[in-house]
Amino acid sequence: MRTRLRSLIIGDIQFQFKYGFYFVYTVFTFFYICLLFAFPATIREKAAILMIYSDPAAMGLFFMGSIVLFEKSQRVLNSIAVSPVKVSEYILSKVVSLGLIGTVVGVLIAFAAGNRNIILVIIATFMGSVIFSLFGLMIASKIQTLNQFMVATIPFEILCLVPSIFYLFGYQKPFMLLHPGIIVIRMMEGKNIENIAFELLMLGIWILMIYMVTYRIVKKMFQSVGGVKL
Amino acid sequence: MIKVENLEFSYTKKPFIKDINFEVKKGEIFGFLGPSGAGKSTLQKILTGLITNYSGSAIVNHTESKNHDDRFYENIGLDFEFPSLYEKLTARQNLKFFGSLYNKKLRDTEELFHKVGLGYDMDKKVFEYSKGMKSRLNFIKALLHDPDILFLDEPTSGLDPSNSRDMKNIILEEKHKGKTIILTTHNMNDAAELCDRVAFIVDGRVKALDTPHNLIMSKGATKLKYSYYDKKEIIRQCPLNKTVEDSKLLDLIQQNKLLSIHSSEPTLNDIFIEVTGRGLQ
Question: Quick check: A203 pLDDT over 80?
Answer without folding.
Answer: yes
